[in-house]
Amino acid sequence: MLKLKPRLLLLALAAGLPLAAQAHMTWLLPNLTQLNGKEPVVSVDAVVSEDLFIFERALKLETLRITAPDGRALEVEGRSSARHRESFDLKLSQDGTYRISHISQSLFGSYKLAGETKRFRSTAATLDKDLPAGAELLALTQAVNRQQTFVSKEAPGRVAFAPEGQGLEFLPLGAVTDLSHGDQTRFRLLLDGQPVADAAVKLVREGNRHRYKLGDLTLKTDAQGEFTVAWSEPGRYWLGATVGERPAPGASSGTRQAPLKRASLSATFEVLPK
């Protein structure tokens, strides 16, 4: 489980950076966020892209956690993989709001072998195979990444999800579907189930590919890790945050026994005209 000391938290989503200067964004995008009918099916795409909601590269699906309105865990169906997206379907049998989360974990770093320094990516299960024999490990970081989205069947109902408790997550304290411009939603940002105070959260509206300005907004969490999003325009939105450890001067950049820790998070929402 990812644990970060408060003094080591580094929020990497700085305000005002052009989108191209940031890392690629990852996102889950449902075809609809509000559905009706007896047992409607929502389709969700998983993508990595620079331009928001443009299908550029498939996000490899690892651990999916689907929470029904009554708190039960559900299974997805109809999974498929293509060059520009991975997708799955979810049948909505209960009325209310569903939480859809995807969690992935990885290791990345660098090593020196025969006087040459190389970078690598790995997992806890494959690290021994990915490090060549005789290599000197120079740096190692453990990353936990989460993507979230929310959908509803019929009336959204009361939103009261329990924390998932691993990495970063947005815990909604109000409506996250059936939104119209002018509405507001309160969130709590959690790291391993605990509130993250004074953290930067980036909000981006779709369409950055077709305008000169990114149109992003940076929000700050309060002492309880809470913040409010005012949905000022119709459209689809991406909400994200990143935290990570920075090594102290002269200290190791992460070892096999004590890798540096990093966590990232994104969530998507749809806002309709009033």
Structure description:
- This is DUF4198 domain-containing protein.
- Keywords: Signal.
- Residues 1-23 form the signal peptide.
- The chain has 274 residues and is mostly beta strands.
- It has one domain: Immunoglobulin-like, CATH 2.60.40.10.
- 1% of the residues lie in helices and 50% in strands.
- It has one helix at residues 127-130, and strands at residues 25-30, 34-35, 41-49, 57-58, 63-67, 73-74, 77-81, 86-91, 96-113, 116-122, 136-153, 168-172, 179-180, 184-191, 194-195, 200-205, 216-220, 226-230, 235-244, 260-272.
- Strands 2, 5, 6, 9, 10, 11, 13, 16, 17, 19 and 20 form an eleven-stranded mixed β-sheet that branches. Strands 1, 3, 4, 7 and 8 form a five-stranded antiparallel β-sheet that branches.
- The longest helix is centred in the middle third of the chain and has 4 residues, at 127-130.
- It is globular.
- The termini are far apart.
- Residues 1-22 have low confidence and may be disordered.
**If you compute it from the alpha carbons, what radius of gyration comes out, rounded to the nearest whole angstrom?**
19 Å
Largest sheet: 11 strands, mixed
With helices defined by DSSP (H or I, 4 residues minimum), what is the helix count? 1
Task: Provide the number of structural domains.
Answer: 1
* Envelope shape: globular
By CATH reckoning, the class would read Mainly Beta
Alpha-carbon distance between the two ends:
42 Å
What is the number of strand segments? 20
Annotated CATH architecture:
Sandwich
Helix-strand category: mainly beta
Could you state the order of secondary-structure elements as H and E? Answer: EEEEEEEEEEHEEEEEEEEEE
The residue-averaged pLDDT reads 87
Within CATH, the superfamily carries the name Immunoglobulins
Estimate percent helicity. Answer: under 10%
Per DSSP, what share of the residues sits in E-state strands of 2 or more residues? over 45%
Low-confidence stretches: 1-22
CATH topology description? Immunoglobulin-like
Protein name: DUF4198 domain-containing protein
Keywords: Signal
Organism: Roseateles rivi
Signal peptide: 1-23
